[in-house]
């Protein structure tokens, strides 16, 4: 439904609501079209979590042990670095995922990509490696606060659990 508004007027599907979208997609493209882009979405989520988890503990050690920062400075600093790393790790996969989900068949019914790997290779060939990082500042501003809030909430939950003896 989000992508519908980005299409040219002649190609828009004009979904009325989520149920109408589900019905139309199933009727027009088949049931499997509901999972178009599911594989790349899973890979993107895995890369985001990898960047988030791998960088947080290392950043905590840096802020706490090497820089001598207090608890709040450590959590905020480490979560900001973790958010940046999560965005940097996941954006190339997000780019491919978005391209796969947005692709439309041409007049002959052929899709521009045969899959995620084909999309990545064509992008690399035509745009170079930095093409995968198009829009990084905007993506980072969208992803980093989410990651930061996750770590801040987790820190508060852990403090509360200690307080009540769990």
UniProtKB/TrEMBL annotation:
Entry keywords, A to Z: Membrane, Mitochondrion, Mitochondrion inner membrane, Repeat, Transmembrane, Transmembrane helix, Transport
GO cellular component, one term: mitochondrial inner membrane
Chief location of this protein within or outside the cell: mitochondrion
InterPro entries: MCP_dom_sf (IPR023395), MCP_transmembrane (IPR018108), Mito_Metabolite_Transporter (IPR050391)
Start and stop residues of the Solcar repeats: 1-62, 70-160
Membrane topology: Multi-pass membrane protein
Compartments, as annotated in UniProt: Mitochondrion inner membrane
PROSITE patterns: SOLCAR (PS50920)
Family: Belongs to the mitochondrial carrier (TC 2.A.29) family.
Protein name: Mitochondrial dicarboxylate/tricarboxylate transporter DTC
């Amino acid at each position: 439904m989000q992508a519908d508004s980005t299409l040219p007027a002649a190609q828009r599907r004009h979904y009325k609501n989520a149920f109408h979208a589900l019905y139309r997609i199933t009727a027009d493209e088949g049931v499997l079209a509901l999972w178009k882009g599911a594989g790349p979405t899973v890979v993107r989520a895995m890369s985001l979590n990898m960047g988030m988890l791998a960088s947080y503990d290392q950043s905590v050690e840096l802020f706490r042990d090497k820089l001598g920062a207090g608890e709040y400075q450590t959590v905020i600093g480490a979560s900001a670095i973790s958010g940046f790393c999560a965005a940097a790790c996941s954006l190339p996969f997000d780019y491919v995922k978005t391209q796969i989900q947005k692709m439309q068949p041409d007049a002959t019914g052929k899709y521009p990509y045969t899959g995620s790997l084909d999309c990545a290779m064509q992008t690399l060939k035509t745009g170079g490696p930095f093409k995968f990082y198009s829009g990084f500042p905007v993506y980072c501003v969208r992803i980093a606060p989410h990651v930061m809030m996750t770590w801040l909430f987790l820190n508060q939950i852990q403090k509360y659990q200690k307080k009540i003896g769990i």
